[in-house]
Amino acid sequence: MRIIFHEAFHDSGYTDDRYDNAAEPGRLVGILQSLREEGRYSFEEPLPAEPADLLRGHSAEYVASVEAKPRLYAMASLAAGGALLAAERAAQGEPTFAVVRPPGHHASRASAWGRCTFGNVALALLRLRDAGRIRSALLCDFDQHTGDGTLDLLRAWPEARVFNGYGNDAAEYVSVLEAHLKSAPQVDIVAVSAGFDGYVHDVGRKLTTDSYAEIGRLLKAYAFRLGHQRRFAVLEGGYYQPDLGRNVLAFCKGFE
Predict the structure, then answer these.
(1) Spatial CA neighbour of 97 closest among 178, 177, 31
(2) Fewest CB within 10 angstroms: 28, 195, 206, 238, which?
(3) Residue 141: pLDDT above 70?
């Protein structure tokens, strides 16, 4: 399994002084420590997304408004580039996880919220589609919050199915995902918006470390049933730092 990461992601790219757990400087430290200590994953640095890649999903006016904030644009285009690289490696047959920020699943065509900027996962899928590499996709978003931006960017592509997970507790959540995947269609690639804020000590207060391992295993099993095993995931939320690294590692070990 390949991990996509750039040291620049330790800087959130946010330019205001308002405290936000998504922008906390040390947020990715535990994730990288856990993944590197595992000792089995290769790491690769992304390049920033090109303007043409951003314009596949976002309006020219919106992209220009982000460009007017050079620090944020540099980080957000690099995050999108991380998702693009993860999708490329997955299309080549290697399961991949991109540790990036700012996140992207609340980024719509002409606006964004929740500290998202560009629609990282959606943009990656759109580039593969436009290059003729895929015709269809299933995107699973297990973040605590619905990926409204992703839904907006993929709305005109009926062969791109988006599943936002829900459940009142860990067992129900995993059961709903398992049932959905059992009836999911044949698609060319599996994409994941991997948010870890549904954790029992985070805002969602329901999922456990074992839940994330099981989510990874279910998505891997679905990719195996498809026959091609093409799958990638990109980091979204997750703010309880004491356990964030082990939760991400649990998912990766199930997903790899």
Answers:
(1) 31
(2) 206
(3) yes
pTM given for the model: 0.96
* pLDDT recorded at residue 17: 46
- CA 68-24-3 angle, 5° bins: 85
* Nearby residues of 18 by Cβ (< 8 Å), 6 or more positions away: none
User: Which tens digits make up the pLDDT trace of 218-248?
Assistant: 999 999 999 999 999 999 999 999 999 999 9
Report CA dihedral (104, 105, 107, 112) to the nearest 10 degrees. -90
User: Structural domain boundaries of the chain?
Assistant: 2-255
pLDDT (average), residues 106-115: 96
Q: How far is the first Cα of the chain from the last one, in angstroms, to the nearest whole number?
A: 6
* DSSP alpha helix (H) spans, the chain: 29-38, 51-54, 60-67, 70-91, 120-130, 148-153, 170-182, 209-226, 241-255
pLDDT, tens digit, for every residue of 14-68? 655 445 666 677 889 999 999 999 999 999 999 999 999 999 999 999 999 999 9
CATH class (in words) of the domain with range 2-255: alpha beta
Tokens of 61: 């006016």
Under 8 Å between Cβ of 94 and 233: no
**β-strand partners of 234:** 98, 193
Asked if 46 and 85 count as a contact pair (C-beta separation under 8 A), the reply is yes
Q: Which two tokens stand for residue 37?
A: 């200590």
The pair of structure tokens assigned to 182 is: 């059992």
d(CA 252, CA 141): 15
